[in-house]
Amino acid sequence: MSRVSVATRLGLVEQTRRPLLLVLLVIVPLLFITKAIAATQPLPRQVGLPGGVRVLTNMRDVHGAVMAAITVAFLAGLCGVFVMQAIRQGDRRLVVAGFTPFQALLPRLVVLGAESVLVLGVSLAVTAFSFQPRSWAAFIVGNLLTGAVYALLGALAGALLGGLGATYLILFGAMLDLGIVQNPMFGVGTPPEWAVLLPGYGPGRVIVDAAFSERFHAWAALAISLGWTLALLVLVLLVLHRIVATHSGGHCS
Q: How many other CB atoms sit within 10 Å of the CB of residue 56?
């Protein structure tokens, strides 16, 4: 068994020993999404889709469309923060023990991906009881990209701010971005022009389009989402490599 696979297995086992984290990843989506949708009145609401199309729906369905993304963003971001703390505490010792920085970092990214997929799966399953998007495939892709973007943002925030500061930043950032600015429940039903600068814009537009349209219009938003994901992945790899290599006493290649 390779070093990477052993470190990945140990990283996954380590996460199962954190009951609070497992509760957050499973119980929070169940309660948060179900209660939010159930408490929303089905008042009429116009929503603007990518491409300029406007559809008439209701506030409960809009809430159903966006709640999974808000939940996934916060919890995936929180996972990114936790993974960063684990790297700071333990992975530098792996490099001293003979691991290359890549061999030490790849398992953590796999663990982060697994946790994000778990959050995504639970959130979508809970959403399915209360809301059915027009296109499940695009809806899943939009939420998957939301999780990827915010998981990577959480890792960056954890590196720059530490655990507590990063947690607050992810919480308020996710709520402001996806919960308010990108949320078609507010304003005129479409994000303001400056919202394109925020990380949730691309995934949010993909999700809204998938929720209320059987035809996919959000190609530009999908491209923006992929751009954010790739850019953040490169930044995270650079930051993590620097953290591990800097504290490894030169034992890196």
A: 10
